[in-house]
Amino acid sequence: MKKVHVLIILIAVMAITLMTVGATSNQKEKSQSETNPIIGTWQLSLYKYGSGTSVFQEANPNEGHIKLITDTYFTWVAFNKATQIIYSSAGGTYTLNGDNYTESIEFGLGMDNYLQKKATYTFKIEGDNLFITGNLAENLMIEEVWKRIK
Length: 150
Known about the structure:
Elements: H1 2-35, E1 40-49, E2 57-58, E3 63-69, E4 73-80, E5 86-97, E6 100-109, E7 118-126, E8 129-135, E9 141-148
Antiparallel strand pairs: 1-2, 1-3, 1-9, 3-4, 4-5, 5-6, 6-7, 7-8, 8-9
């Protein structure tokens, strides 16, 4: 009879421990996304490049454009969906200051002209959409809309 009581107490302690760890983990995730809402996995949906166009273009359905943003790093890749081959990519660290998002491009594929440069954007998040507007380099204006991948 004592073994049954000990077993029940042990199971109860383990359950409470697991619930406490899970709650703490959820609080950490929630507070991180609340303090830095740009963190996530994003897929390009619309874009305008250069100052010569006023109309957003839809992302090519035959290409994938994925952007990963962690608490300290960003990376994006562009690839052919049929072959799964990456044809362009960049990444590095970033900083946030209010609604300013600055990428320090530290590595890339097909991005030789932009390596070791900073790109400063303003950003806004509405629902699951990330809006980025700014200059990739001296005069290349970029406006992009990224949709959060869940």
